[in-house]
Each structure stands twice: as C-alpha cells, then as structure tokens.
Write a structure and sequence with these properties.
The protein has 2 domains: 3-30 and 276-376, Aspartate Aminotransferase, domain 1 (Alpha-Beta Complex); 35-274, Type I PLP-dependent aspartate aminotransferase-like (Major domain) (Aspartate Aminotransferase, domain 2). The strands form 3 sheets. It has a 7-stranded mixed sheet, with helices on both faces. Strands 9-10-13-12 form a 4-stranded antiparallel sheet. Strands 1-11 form a two-stranded parallel sheet. It is 41% helix and 16% strand. Helix 2 runs antiparallel to helix 11 (259-274). With 379 residues, it is of the alpha/beta class.
Length: 379
Amino acid sequence: MSSEDGRRIYEELGVKPLINAAGNVTLIGGSRVPDRVLEAVAQANRYYVDMEELLKKSGEYIAGVFGAEAAFVTSGCGAALALGAAACVSGSDPEKMERMPDTTGMKNEILIQKRQRYSYDRCLTIFGAKLVEVGDEEGTTAAQLEAAITDRTAALHYFAPGGGEGVLPVEEVIRVGKARGVPVLVDAAAQLFPLELMKRYTGLGADLVCYGAKYFGSFHSTGILCGRKALVDAAFRHCFIGFEAGRYRGIGRPLKVDRQGIIAVVVALRDWLVMDHAARLAEHERKGGVILRAIEGMPHVTAEWTPDSRSLSSGVRVTLDEKGLGKTAVQVIQALREGTPGIWTRGGGNWFLLATSPMFDGEEQVVARRLREVLIGGR
C-alpha cells in the first residue's frame, strides 16, 4: 500500500492524516509499526490458535528477554499495571479474584511516593486497589515508606526511571519491599533502550514490571507484564483467557489481546534485539539535520539537535524569541497542527521539540518546509 492509499483510507472517513513529530503519543496513534512486523501479522492472520497456548509460549520467550521468571502480552502497559495490581491484591485466591473489584477486607493498598504521583497511576486502581501516598512534596524517606506498610499493604509502586530530589531510588524501594515481604510493581513503560535497561528492574529484584510494546515497534495497543512467576500466574488468571477458559471469573476480561497483536510483540521484540541501533539513531539525527538547515540563521529562532538517551524523542528543539518573532511557541505548534499536512509536536514555554524518531522517510522534508513557512509567516 502506498502512502497515498493510506492517506485516502483516513480522508474517506473525514479524518485528517498527520505527521508525527511528537513521539509515541497515544493521542495520535502511539507507534510506527515496521513493515516486517506487519508482514508477520498478515501471515499469522491465516491461522487460528489456542490463545492460552500462544500467550504462554510467547510469554516464555518474552520472559527470557527481560530476565524474568514469567511474562505475558497485555493490551498495553496500562493493562499490565491493572492486572499486576489485581494480582498483588488477590494473589491466586479464586474467592478474592471473583469478588473484585470489591476488595473489602483484602490487602488492597498500594503505596506510592508522593512525588511520584502521575496520571497513569490510575490504572493501578481500576480493579479495586487503593493508592496511598507516602511522604510529601519535599520527598519520601525509606523510614517513611517502611512505616507506611501495614497489614493492608498489597504492593509498593515505582514509576521508572525515577530520579529527582526527594524520590527514593528503585533499589531502596525494592530493599524495603523485600525486607517486609511486600511485592514491588514497576511501571517501566518506555525503559527499553539502551538494551541493558530491559533486564534492569527484574535484575534488581522487582516482583512485577510493566512495559509498553509500542516503544520497540509493536502495535500501540500491546504491552508486557513480567516478573515473579507466582504473581504473573495470578495476573494471568485474571486476564481474558483466565476468564474465557472458565476456571476463574477474573476481572480482566475487557483487556483482550488478539493473536495478531501477540505475534507483533514477539516479532518486534526479536528485531529490536538484533537491530543496528547505531544506524537507527544516525538516521534520526540525519532527519534532524534537514530540519536544522531549513531554519538555519533565521532571526529570533534558536534550534539544536537534542538526543534522548532512550532514543524515543530525539529531535530538534526550537526556542523562540517570541517578542522579536511576533509569534509564540504555542501559536507555532497550533499552526503546524492545523496546516496541510498537519504536524503534531509538543513543547512548553517558548520552545517546542520536533521529534524525528517517529517520522517516516521523507517526512522530515515536509516538516522542514512547513516549519519555515510558519516561522517566516510570523515576521
């Protein structure tokens, strides 16, 4: 299928196709799926399979990649968080599983550092768990975390990579969890490059770790839950297959994954491990160079190549002298988005970042031209 064919599919519905210069953003579709993955999915579509067998066999491979005892594919990282939290609350107790989301009388509290609160932590609560903040805006100490653990504590949560003043490092959270016999659940959604990151959290002893498979080239709607076998098995019993198999009336039936998505995760993951990442990063920078040259020397505009250590949002950071240019960064972002073609980017204050990693070949030329038009139009 040509790019024009793809464009027409959306335009026939009255939907405007966009160029992604923002990153793996859910609002605009999340991921760029390589042709090889799409070809494998098309081939897999030819046959039906026993979904429980597929989930378990693919999970064995995935667990090995992440250095975990067990794993399985989920419908995104958010689903992995929800199923992981459910497993920490109920374990493999059928009575508790079937009573959820009513968690009255269960260990249903998940501790989270006050300074680690973030929008996606809501995923942890949808099956009946309750978040309990530890510490304050100044930070959290190990003593505070230990003191907050009670007989109602189901898990400790950590949002990777962490960092920041007053935030306990993941090593300390895991130490506290191990000492008190409380599992640690890590949201490591995008912690997939450099490759050694993929075994970091299980290697440190985290009990459950969640990833977004979109970050290594799978479908936007796929993720991974991996970790200690007993908890992964409990989460598996909650998932849609545990429900459909008729053994347990688990809570995760809405979080269904199709066989094509599972294959996409496996193929994308295999390719990610053997990919020439140096060449991939060089291509990102080459595209950035095209954009930089288009606005080089432009008054009131400063631009520089800004690499992302995780390789997800490497791009050109553009900073504006808004008064001199006669246009704000917000106005430029909006003009790019509303133009033809629409270009979606992100920023803050007087700057914005044009991420080149999600761009298809040739789109950097379009972005460079449109950016120049918008900036010149502001003077």
